[in-house]
Amino acid sequence: MDLNGKRILIVKLRYIGDTLSIVPVVENLKRVSPGSRLDVLVNRGTEPVVIHHPSIDHTWVYDYGLSKKLGYRSIRYQVDLIKSLRSVRYDVVIDFTHGDRAALICFLTGAPVRVTHCHAGTLSQRLMNRFVDSDPAAGHIVDHQLASLRVLGLEGFEPTLSLHVPGPVRRSVDRRVGRAGLSDDCPWVAVHPGARGELRRWRSERFAELIERLRSDVSVSVLLLGGPGEEDVLEEVQARLERPAELCSSDMSLLELGELLRRCSLFIGNDSAPGHLAAAAGCPTVSLFGPTFPHMWRPLAPQGQVLFKDPPCCGCRQEACTRSEAWCMDLIGVDEVWDCAMRILKPEAL
């Protein structure tokens, strides 16, 4: 299928890391079909990681919270959104959400070619008309999504990933770095002890122990980072340190965080959005996995180390742990994380 001159919409109504995972699809589509118009539809709050990408012509933002409410305002919002989408007259829509809501939106765009996965829900099976036949659990989510392009007759994909930050955001980070007094004389190590679910978190005392070892043996500046609602987690780590982190923040925007990570020598954290931001920014990562599979979700960093103990219950719903005596994140030791960090910070010493 010749996509040059075509109007394409990619739909991913998920979380921040999921939204970043469509960037390789965007970049490959633009590379093989530079004459196409390429738009994306993503959840509100995730759009900063794609809205400045030069390969994306327009970013639609879906207000999931408003759409779920009852009443005239919600109905009006959804009707107006569909009208706006239909006015573009898309030729192709590709859905990576695999949920009924996204399938209905894709159908209502009026696009004649509607692509999803063959394992998507019943409504997707009825409303979409091109189906990707690949095992979503067999490889990385990016490889799985790139396989959708084969349905359109495209080949030769590259798992590229990038984060685009505008000048005002870079200058904002310059000021924050200046206030913190961070020096280029030693490596900056970003540590993110939070995660969307508690069962994905390595213990605060272990992060603190690791930080003290890094300071003692490598002489690094520590950037203790989190997002909204993770203030308590950062405080737990700070309370166990001999001196506070050189920079501690839970109030940075997504793009400020990404730009700061671009300047770091290493990111260490749990399976969560900042790890994917670090990878997109080109920062080496050490990622700790427990209840999720790293072969599917690891950050696509230029240098990426993963620690994972492959518990038999991996893939659980992460609502509660039934194996408290052998909690999957507790199986990861400080020495192991230290060794991974040294492979990046001091490879010549190994």
Description of the molecule:
By secondary structure, the protein is an alpha/beta fold. It folds into 2 domains: 7-152, 3-Layer(aba) Sandwich (Rossmann fold), CATH 3.40.50; 167-349, Rossmann fold. Helix content is 37%, strand content 17%. It is built from 14 helices and 12 strands. The chain has helices at 16-20, 23-32, 64-68, 72-88, 100-108, 122-127, 141-146, 167-180, 204-217, 231-238, 254-262, 273-281, 294-297, 334-345; strands spanning 7-12, 37-43, 58-62, 92-95, 113-117, 130-132, 188-192, 221-225, 247-249, 266-270, 285-289, 304-308. The strands form 2 sheets. It has a 6-stranded parallel sheet, with helices on both faces. The chain has a 6-stranded parallel sheet with strand order 9-8-7-10-11-12, sandwiched between helices. β10, α12 (273-281) and β11 (285-289) form a beta-alpha-beta unit. The N and C termini lie far apart (50 Å).
Concise structural overview:
The protein has 350 residues and is of the alpha/beta class. Helix content is 37%, strand content 17%. It has helices at 16-20, 23-32, 64-68, 72-88, 100-108, 122-127, 141-146, 167-180, 204-217, 231-238, 254-262, 273-281, 294-297, 334-345, and strands spanning 7-12, 37-43, 58-62, 92-95, 113-117, 130-132, 188-192, 221-225, 247-249, 266-270, 285-289, 304-308.
